[in-house]
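User: Design a sequence. Structure:
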């Protein structure tokens, strides 16, 4: 039984090793000030400007469009034309 579990563990580990990691790509970045120590950085993990500003608010940080954002192929809800509902007059 132990050998069976060991072989199963090795097979699962081998399957996970073949999977490549991909960086997340989102359209908005929060630019961090760094405070008195300088430095700073950015966090490009936000899907909307509002979401980014909620994280930045009160800390002196700001949000900007991610210049390296490459949207996935296909139609996107933000880019699709808005559909109007037909209004019936009775």
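Assistant: Done.
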């Amino acid at each position: 039984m132990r050998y069976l579990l060991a072989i199963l563990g090795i097979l699962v580990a081998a399957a996970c090793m073949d999977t490549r990691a991909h960086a997340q790509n989102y359209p908005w970045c929060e630019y961090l000030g760094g405070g008195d120590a300088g430095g700073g950085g950015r966090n490009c993990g936000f899907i909307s400007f509002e979401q980014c500003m909620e994280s930045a608010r009160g800390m002196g940080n700001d949000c900007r469009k991610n210049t390296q954002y490459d949207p996935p192929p296909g139609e996107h809800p933000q880019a699709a034309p808005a559909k109007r509902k037909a209004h019936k007059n009775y």
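DSSP finds two helices and three strands in the chain. The chain has a mean pLDDT of 79.
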